[in-house]
Amino acid sequence: MNNVLRRLDLNLLVTLDALLVEHNVTRAAERLHLSQPTVSIQLGKLREALGDPLLLPGPRGMRPTARAEALRDPLRQALDALAQAVSAPAVFDPARASQTWRVASFDYGESTILLPALAGLRAAAPGTRLAVLEVAPADMGRQLEQGGIDLAFHVGDEAPGGLRRRLMFAEQYVLVGRAGHPGLSRRPTLAEFSRFEHAIVSPDGGGFRGVTDSALSERGLSRRVVLSVPHFLFLKSVLASTDLVAMLPSRLVQDDPRLQQVEPPVAVPGFEMHMLWHERSHRDPAHQWLREHIAASV
């Protein structure tokens, strides 16, 4: 069969389908918007390739052979399947969707991007499911390419290359402590800032140095980092119940009544959060809808 397919132009199969419907070369030509001689030539090629006359002259037009009758239904099904495969994707209807989306994000992105989008997502697409995973930045590109995840959210300058991306927002750091913290009634001096007991989020685990320490070292200063944790959520609870302070992204604490924030006495570079996806899903209507929904929720 493979040898036969190599010898056949797809257009010949379309012509055979029309001939099996019309049983007449002239009417088949009209159906295909071709000339009658062209259809006759194509019928000759079909007979040669398939080793069968396919259609024979009869009293009421052309009569299909047994081989042609056997081809009729499988051929129509195959052409219908092929037409569906190459047709433009259907318009995505979130109300009727049943997708399971897999999104990679650490807890900062969960709180600042996914959480604001979740209620609207459930209302607009109630039949869908959302799985949130932690994926190491080094694995994000491969997971997106292979379809293990659909979207990822990460700091722009640490994101893997070769991906589509969209800026979600720019973030800045603020100095945070519990509400009523005695050292945060005003902006502290650099000396006071350095004497505080600090906590830090270390996604890689166990680190006691970050961008704030780099900014301080440029001034010949340092600070006391006494606690390192892997997640922002835990650190917020620590700050709310102790006198520790931390440099945190402002969006993470802006609506938490347990915490207060002040401008730090040292300038610390902020960062940009990006939505990342692979070219393979860029034009998919469902993915496009999900990306636009999330972006509009931030």
UniProtKB/TrEMBL annotation:
What keyword terms does UniProt attach to this protein? DNA-binding, Transcription, Transcription regulation
Similarity comment: family membership: Belongs to the LysR transcriptional regulatory family.
Keyword Cell wall biogenesis/degradation among UniProt keywords: no
**Cross-referenced PANTHER family, in alphabetical order?**
HTH-TYPE TRANSCRIPTIONAL REGULATOR LEUO-RELATED (PTHR30118), TRANSCRIPTIONAL REGULATORY PROTEIN (PTHR30118:SF15)
Entry's transmembrane regions: none
A Pfam short name: LysR_substrate
State the protein's name: LysR family transcriptional regulator
| Superkingdom classification of source | Bacteria
Q: Which residues form the HTH lysR-type domain?
A: 8-65
Q: Which one of the record's GO molecular function terms can you name?
A: DNA-binding transcription factor activity
Q: Does the keyword Transcription apply?
A: yes
- Name its species: Microvirgula aerodenitrificans
